[in-house]
Write a structure and sequence with these properties.
- By secondary structure, the protein is α/β, with parallel strands linked by helices.
- It has a domain of about 180 residues: Isopropylmalate Dehydrogenase, CATH 3.40.718.10.
- It has 13 helices and twelve strands.
- A six-stranded parallel beta sheet has the order 1-4-3-2-5-12, with helices on both faces. It has a six-stranded mixed beta sheet with strand order 9-8-10-7-6-11, with helices on both faces.
- Helix 1 packs parallel to helix 12, helix 3 packs across helix 13 and helix 6 runs parallel beside helix 7.
- The longest helix has 17 residues.
- It is globular.
- The N terminus is likely disordered.
Length: about 350
């Protein structure tokens, strides 16, 4: 529905084929005890410790410092639009209207126009001028059209509406659409806590169950790329574990030692590292940790999807920390919101997508 007119789903446009993205489906392993210890350290360090001591944030990173600054940066990116398949439900539509009213981004909804009208009545809202609707009844067709809009530059990012995750992901991975990069898709939760005065990327609590060495490299780089878009000079990647020593009973420590030894081009990597040594310079000093990552990490890589998910969601529901998240590794940012997400989290995620798509520098 554009200027009162219904626009039908456009035909698919064939793109050059690229290497497929991959998803890890390995069963999670490891010690539940080590996970519990690790999570306790995470919260005691990031929520409670007075970070950086006498070191100013300017001396450590040139990051955007909070989500208000991310939103300001997003407003400076002109022409931002989200393509949203089946975005006709009240939860999705409310988030898109808020993004429009906040000056963050417009959107293109690909879904039933009748559903959009019904949701507007429920919300008591009118459709802003920078939100258009392409009438489409089928979720699979809507998902492919949304991806096509992003791949052709008609939209700058993708956002999941009311459709199955598998249908949404299949459209992203479609060989003829154009969002494939050959990299693993991974979730990045960008977290801010007032006591920290900084933003940190936590990965991967949403996509890969227990990634192998090659997959972790890509996951870490995806998060590092997000943080660079937010102003970091270089990804400072901490491979998190409950301890800093290699213990064969904690398989993540063995994997982290190998990855830290191999390194990642363009990034600084340290591991295994407990979260206090990764985030607090004083803790790193006491532990005799050296190097650019010690106490100054801007990317925290968790061992598996369970620890990453618990870590990030724990911040959302147990602290005053602001969180935003997206899926990285595709040719454009992908925002997947939960119906249970607070309005603030939804706006944070959309603003994050705008900045990552358009750059903040």
């Amino acid at each position: 529905m554009r200027n009162g007119k219904t626009v039908r789903c456009l035909p698919e446009r064939r793109q050059n084929q690229r290497e497929p993205l991959q998803f890890s489906s390995r069963a999670s392993e490891g010690s539940m005890f080590s996970l519990q210890v690790w999570l306790i350290k995470c919260f005691s360090t990031i929520v409670s410790y007075p970070l950086f001591c006498s070191i100013s944030i300017e001396e450590v990173l040139t990051l955007l410092r909070n989500f208000e600054e991310i939103r300001q940066a997003a407003r400076s990116v002109s022409g931002s639009r989200a393509a949203v398949p089946m975005g006709h439900d009240p939860a999705s539509l409310e988030a898109l209207i808020q993004a429009s009213e906040s000056g963050l981004a417009g959107s293109i909804i690909i879904g039933p126009s009748s559903g959009v009208k019904e949701s507007l009545e429920v919300l008591g809202k009118k459709l802003p001028d920078d939100i258009t609707v392409q009438d489409c009844q089928d979720a699979e067709t809507a998902a492919k059209e949304a991806v096509r809009l992003v791949s052709t530059g008609e939209a700058s990012m993708l956002m999941k509406g009311l459709l199955k995750t598998s249908v949404f992901q299949n459209a992203i991975l479609d060989k003829e659409i154009g969002l494939r990069t050959g990299r693993v898709l991974s979730h990045v939760a960008v977290v801010h806590a007032p006591k920290q005065k900084r933003l940190v990327g936590i990965t991967d609590g949403g996509m890969n169950i227990r990634p192998d060495l090659n997959e972790v490299k890509q996951i870490a780089w995806n998060a590092g790329e997000v943080m660079v878009k937010l102003g970091a000079e270089k990804p400072l990647i901490a491979l998190l574990a409950a301890v800093e020593v290699v213990n064969e009973k904690m398989p993540e420590t063995v994997l982290w030692e190998k990855l830290a030894a191999e390194g990642i081009d363009g990034a600084e990597v340290a591991g295994p590292v407990a979260v206090d040594g990764a985030m607090d310079p004083e803790a790193a000093r006491i532990k005799n940790m050296t190097g650019p990552v010690a106490g100054r990490a801007n990317v925290l890589v968790t061992p598996d999807i369970a620890s990453g998910n618990i870590f990030a969601k724990g911040f959302m529901y147990m602290t005053d920390t602001q969180v935003g998240g997206l899926i990285a590794g595709a040719a454009a940012p992908v925002v997947m919101l939960s119906r249970s997400d607070a309005a603030e989290t939804k706006l944070n995620s959309l603003a994050l997508g705008v900045v990552v798509a358009g750059g903040s520098k």
